[in-house]
Hints:
Layout: E1 6-10, H1 15-27, E2 32-37, E3 56-60, H2 66-74, E4 78-81, H3 88-93, H4 96-116, E5 119-125, H5 160-179, E6 183-188, E7 191-192, H6 201-210, E8 216-218, E9 224-226, E10 228-229, H7 230-243, E11 249-252, E12 257-259, H8 260-270, E13 279-281, H9 296-302, H10 311-324, H11 326-341
Parallel strand pairs: 1-2, 1-4, 2-3, 4-5, 5-6, 6-11, 7-10, 8-13
Antiparallel strand pairs: 9-12
Helix pairs in contact: 1-7, 2-4, 4-5, 6-8, 6-10
The structure holds nicotinamide-adenine-dinucleotide (NAD) and thymidine-5'-diphospho-beta-D-xylose.
Amino acid sequence: xxxxxxxxxxxxxxxxxxxxxxxxxxxxxxxxxxxxxxxxxxxxxxxxxxxxxxxxxxxxxxxxxxxxxxxxxxxxxxxxxxxxxxxxxxxxxxxxxxxxxxxxxxxxxxxxxxxxxxxxxxxxxxxxxxxxxxxxxxxxxxxxxxxxxxxxxxxxxxxxxxxxxxxxxxxxxxxxxxxxxxxxxxxxxxxxxxxxxxxxxxxxxxxxxxxxxxxxxxxxxxxxxxxxxxxxxxxxxxxxxxxxxxxxxxxxxxxxxxxxxxxxxxxxxxxxxxxxxxxxxxxxxxxxxxxxxxxxxxxxxxxxxxxxxxxxxxxxxxxxxxxxxxxxxxxxxxxxxxxxxxxxx
Length: 345
Ligand code: NAD
Ligand code: TDX
């Protein structure tokens, strides 16, 4: 039986939030989910439209709206906070919405959680730790070695996005210590899977191929990301909500380190394209080199295990989803690419 029967999920119409809502509705029949989502460009009502009305409600609104948040938190047992401005490139061209949502929004939610003494889970990113050196740059280090992020790694964010996520983590940590907020945090590596906005790396390249456009690789393609399937992120957050220790930070990752050029060549291979069917474009300013998560403590303590341990298999399913759900992304494709073209990326 689930510990919390009424859950408020912020950002539940976005990529990871919607996958979490779908997981809860499928796997935990006793739970009722309320989604609070502003439906920004990244939120999509179609991510939830097929879910049963008896199990969930969508409230369209801003997490910065104190009155609305207070009202919703008063009638909930736990909050899982996904809502955020989430794209690094956008944070470089216009940081203001990141300050609004990631900082002011989180502040507003933890104030309401404190007032109503409600359990709070804060969803964050490994980007708060900054980046790690590429393995090849480490003298004497080979494949499978090199430092990874742990829950005690010093915060060192690089972009406006990651700085606001770091700030939101700090707010939650301060509210835990100073006000006894019943909160946990999770810092997770790069997610992939269905319903991811086509501005992000994997869906952008898959939909480029499907649109007859060459995929675009930033810089030299050597940057490394540590991929986890969004389903595994959902089960990890659920395990923390149910069994996590109040006040603690948990790292979620699936040992999925790959450099961008390798991921792209796997996509090209799986989609039947030549391995050189892509172009290098301008690099992202301040582009983090490498992320890598050490999730061993989370696995040990909570007994959580990712299901998608075979990245190629998870990627193939993800590609198939974009192939089968063209209606979901096709209308936005032109605008997303025009925006990238304006910054030569
Ligand atoms: P996303 O951009 O796909 O979705 C964000 C959702 O939040 C959208 O539905 C949007 O409408 C909503 N939202 C934005 N501003 C809002 C506001 N002011 N009020 C209410 N709703 C608002 O993002 P995502 O990739 O699903 O990321 C979700 C969370 O997970 C974020 O907190 C992000 O920092 C974190 N995270 C993401 C990744 C990743 O790889 N994408 C990895 C680790 C952590
Ligand atoms: O067209 C592209 N070409 C390219 O080479 C795009 C969009 C990206 N890239 C590179 C940049 C990164 O090295 O691919 C890598 C992944 O890029 P993104 O999908 O933009 O993700 P990233 O910047 O790593 O951040 C993601 O993971 C951590 C999420 O967007 C964040 O919300 C999360 O916190």
